[in-house]
């Protein structure tokens, strides 16, 4: 009889201790939602910084190319082939960088996290 009483006490104690340590699932859902909102705002902030960086980089790059083209006859004397390659790579660089930035902004695939 003492053995049964001891088992009842142990089982009651373990059940009560599990109830005390149980975490409410609503609380976890709220924490997850808060985390997702914080992550969204952080992502938005980083995307804006990336867009500004790309805009500045492209503007400076285009200004330097324009400067090279304007000073070509006076300072550089580059051949037509070199100028064609310079303009072609400039176009590809600008379009590629803008594609990357816009792809990040308007990515329609939902990320699993």
Automatic annotation (TrEMBL):
The chain crosses the membrane at residues 53-75, 81-106. Keywords: Membrane, Transmembrane, Transmembrane helix. The keyword Transmembrane helix applies. The keyword Transmembrane applies. This is Uncharacterized protein. It comes from Riemerella columbipharyngis.
């Amino acid at each position: 009889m003492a053995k049964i009483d001891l088992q009842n006490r142990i089982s009651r104690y373990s059940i009560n201790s599990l109830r005390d340590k149980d975490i409410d699932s609503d609380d976890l859902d709220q924490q997850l939602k808060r985390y997702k909102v914080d992550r969204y705002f952080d992502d938005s902030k980083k995307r804006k910084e990336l867009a500004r960086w790309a805009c500045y980089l492209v503007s400076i790059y285009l200004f330097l190319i324009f400067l090279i083209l304007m000073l070509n006859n006076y300072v550089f004397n580059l051949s037509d082939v070199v100028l064609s390659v310079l303009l072609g790579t400039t176009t590809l660089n600008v379009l590629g960088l803008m594609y990357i930035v816009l792809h990040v902004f308007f990515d329609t695939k939902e990320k699993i996290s």
